């Protein structure tokens, strides 16, 4: 089963649907005033039928799931009396949840984000990815990445959908243990 | 029907699926050496069944559809003898396609990206959104946005999924005409 | 009572304490290897007694409290069927918690952070602060700020200690309602 | 024949031409309102005759050619069932075309841009350039560059005019194979 | 005659030319070690004949011409006893020449670059462009621009090819007078 | 004794305190006009009692102490006839004091900040931390850090509270000697 | 008397001086290892005699003077029970001294730097400069500037040499009062 | 003789001078409207007499000298048929002159600036400095630096006052040869 699948018959959308969208337009975006939004032009809606090849869908963690994973990682660190920060990043590299732990070092916050980003980029724990630098050392020059243990990938249907990153413990192995605890919480 | 829907029974994923994922791991990421990737830990896969609330799905344009829209916008401008740049941005704000038109001004490229970003953020043409500044002028201080005509939203099932931005024509109205032409191409 | 108070007799620290610190050094920071950390030089510890004027203390939300506030803000938005992102920022401007809500616009995440930052900077709701621009319009040019409704301050002992920011609802007033719901959750 | 050549008699421009330029001024730039543009001062035009040494010309790919190359690279990757992003950069380092492939990792987009930039900077495939780091390791500290296989130069008349960059496949060699396929498409 | 013209028969390039390119490869780029550069693959060269539609050419000022213009602008300011900085930017927005004048304010350097950028983007003096903000105030939010008098466009064959920017004098009108003096020097 | 301790009975704050806060609101923030600030909503104050788990406190150097340390470091360098810059950074990574020494190299200012940041992040002198790179070389890719001798940590009660960084001397060992002199000044 | 004056006979330097420079080379820069620096090539020294037009000199505050001014500004604020941050910037826009005051808002630090920068750029208090925006509103788009009261210029021999910026008090007028107190301290 | 010397009796400035400054205020800064500048407060001037310890002076290249050096470097490269960019940076790290050579690679411009910055930071050719990385490899992580041959320092009175950077030739040795030619031009 593929990560990116064509939308099926069930997701069909017609132009009339776009007009409905206009009515509920206010529901999207940070629109910050008493809205009197006019309807977007009808042609802004993508006509979709069973043979539509315009659309694809991607799977992601809900914010609740991501938050639960992050909290679980933080709790695992606390059990070990470690002060860490935690981040969950989606497959597009967007940060979904961050937690700056009490007393965690200032460097831990952004480190956690980058570890999560790295894990989801290559769908592997960052401890594994750090080893790959022996063969391709310049991988670490890719913007957004950090090749330190502490990042764990989350996959669904065999494809990466998120990364959990932890930073701040005295070793990367510990960081990654907590990140994995975060991932594990998703299956409880 | 909602933009963000819970995954159904059909998208269920079991831990065994995660092991399969490990086998095809190389298929994801810019991994740049002869890969001997070890399997990610089994717990990295999200167990999903019919009642799974961990996952959600988002709809987006395929890169082919986005590219077709961008090309159509560029062609529309060319018919009018205008030199523009074009961008398509997805609902997460990621740039999917950019085209720097021959002879377009240097400011047009980033302008196109920001117009597309703005249109998808509020699911409305930027010509409409620019008017809203009368009531909420500080909206334009939100990073990534540009409140100039030339951005058109793309929606599916009543929800925004992409924005098309055009910049470089002598007026924003022209820019937006071309952006709308790009959106229209999605329904051909 | 003042926000910044001198540490009392109870927080006294002697040099011996610093040596103890050295032993548990590994417990701080993202130190990512099997640590064999040598002790920091003894003079790195600040000698503190009752008359010590070197030290001050600042109050902040625990990450658990900040997380609870953020979650409450998100839940309040969900009750209204709104898709938002939420951020909590401490008095030093550091982001403590972020939540990118399901289906929230791409602009909402950074907007939420900036609203929270603005609220804690001036210890007032951003809806109030936006009004102040009439008299001092250039306030909005201060880096990190966003003068849109949706940010609510958190204070303790009369001093600002955090800000909660929400973005993504169709109006700033709604955003701020959710932010206030987040703050209110701290007193439950 | 040189990359940078002096303009010949055929490109001569007189001041009268500048006045014509004023009339069609609106045709350049993202000028976003009903234009009533006044003529630029006559002295703003460069007088050029056969002996003019003020001007030079540079060759570049048309946006159509660049788009065709990018699409060809993406298609080549798809044939191998690989998910990649593609970028084409001109000799001045400007991004001309980008394509974020369906399901490509989040790190692939910017990686593709940087590989293309690197290839056009030194007019060599990035797989070659990565080897040069053995002798000059600090080359990789130059802003904008990425020394990973996957970038291919495009030259005309013996001079570099563009770079094609691909990222996201499990190895850089694969990335570069697709980039070369993109270049090859220019000669079809 | 158009700004962007298709390359004629005279610029034809064959694949053999690409091989020649390989030989002289070292001549391009900041390659910083004893070069033993291998030849780029033959397919990296764009085959070009009289009907080739892959290539286009853009006109620009030589660095010598740009330098002469910048120096003339600086001299004009000095005659008035004014301390300014000067920049020349090409049509792609690249800075070609900068001069930080003795005693010029710290803000003048980047201001000069942005004024030049703005002038070349819309092919008009920035004093004119500043007036256009009355109708389209958000134009000034486009990255890289500065809508203050002091920028003058340079055109050739009716198309913009460069901008000259000056900043640091007590009024923008003076700044623009010097910028125009810089442009005028191109025709001497 | 812990770095992060729960606030005791003595720091209790009631809602009434929040109203007082409103009265003195003007005292916080860079509010830059004749303030007529309305009171923040009462619920913006965190109710705190002896069992309150919402709040925590962190210890930091006063600005006077930080300034004295920075000055002492600068003086120590001057005694050796060295030209350096100095920075003090708090545990959250915020720069508290900077001094750009007369004649110090341009690179020294930011280097001092980063050394201080690195020292406080791992609570160890940067000379020690630089050695740790042998085992975990990618630590140096963490944003904000610089692994060069010259940074010294400041701790209180066994926990890091600040870092002092010095840069500009001909060797890092000298830089660190001055940084340590700065720390030592705190105990005089 | 001019701000920028030609160096007189007294500053003459001969090539032999350059060789001396080589010997003491270690004294400049953040060179961080046991130095075995070779002499810079002799031609690296500028031959200077009485008629030398290569060199100019600029006046600046010593770091001690700048530090005294900053401290005086902070003290003045404290007398009024205000929590502020302070910055001193030199004529080239470099930050010389910063002080983040205890309890000052997070936005105050960068605001102080920008106010100081603005004051020294135009050699006027920022309260005056803010008024000038009525006539030239786009001045505030110049990078690095902030047009809020609180910045005071320092001049010597009729030319600007530094700016003092203060931020964090409830009004800009207060901020500027403290900044002026900082300047005044230079004449005590 | 020292780089930083105290100002002598001859540079004395009295408060009356400050009033004169007010009159000629318009002569500084990019003040962009019909100026009606009020006088800065009298206390903004630093009282200076023979014993004044507030002021120091720094030596720098005039923009004319810097421009001549840059042009000489460019010419030297042209003689060798090399396409390069050139930059001159002052002791404070400010870019004074830049020249983007015809046909130089896109990476050459910023590389030249960074090489110049590096050379003036440590007062040594960057070819020398690159060797020092063997002992202190992390020096290259200092922001603004680039450890590639091609940067040459300029000194006066034994102290660094500027750096000349060249990039774009096939080897760093060539780049540095041209940079040295630029420095040499200062003594002609």
TrEMBL record, chains A, B, C, D, E, F, G, H:
Keyword Signal: yes
Signal peptide: 1-35
PROSITE patterns: TAT (PS51318)
Keywords: Signal
Pfam families: HbpS-like (PF03928)
Full protein name: Heme-binding protein
Organism: Streptomyces dioscori
InterPro entries: GlcG_carb_metab_protein (IPR052517), PduO/GlcC-like (IPR005624), PduO/GlcC-like_sf (IPR038084), TAT_signal (IPR006311)
Domain of life: Bacteria
């Amino acid at each position: 089963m593929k990560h990116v699948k064509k939308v099926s018959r069930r997701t069909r959308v017609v132009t009339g649907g776009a007009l409905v969208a206009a009515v509920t337009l206010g529901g999207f975006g940070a629109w910050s005033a008493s809205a009197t939004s006019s309807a977007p032009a009808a042609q802004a809606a993508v006509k979709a039928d069973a043979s539509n090849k315009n659309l694809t869908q991607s799977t992601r963690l809900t914010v609740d799931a991501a938050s639960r994973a992050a909290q679980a990682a933080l709790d695992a660190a606390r059990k070990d009396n470690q002060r860490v920060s935690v981040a969950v990043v989606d497959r597009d590299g967007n940060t979904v949840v961050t937690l700056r732990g009490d007393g965690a070092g200032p460097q831990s916050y952004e480190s956690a984000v980058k570890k999560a980003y790295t894990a989801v980029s290559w769908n592997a724990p960052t401890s594994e990815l750090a080893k790959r630098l022996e063969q391709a050392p310049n991988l670490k020059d890719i913007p957004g990445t950090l090749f330190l243990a502490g990042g764990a990938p989350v996959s669904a249907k065999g494809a990466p959908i998120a990364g959990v990153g932890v930073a701040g413990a005295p070793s990367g192995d510990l960081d990654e243990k907590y990140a994995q605890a975060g991932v594990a919480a998703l299956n409880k």
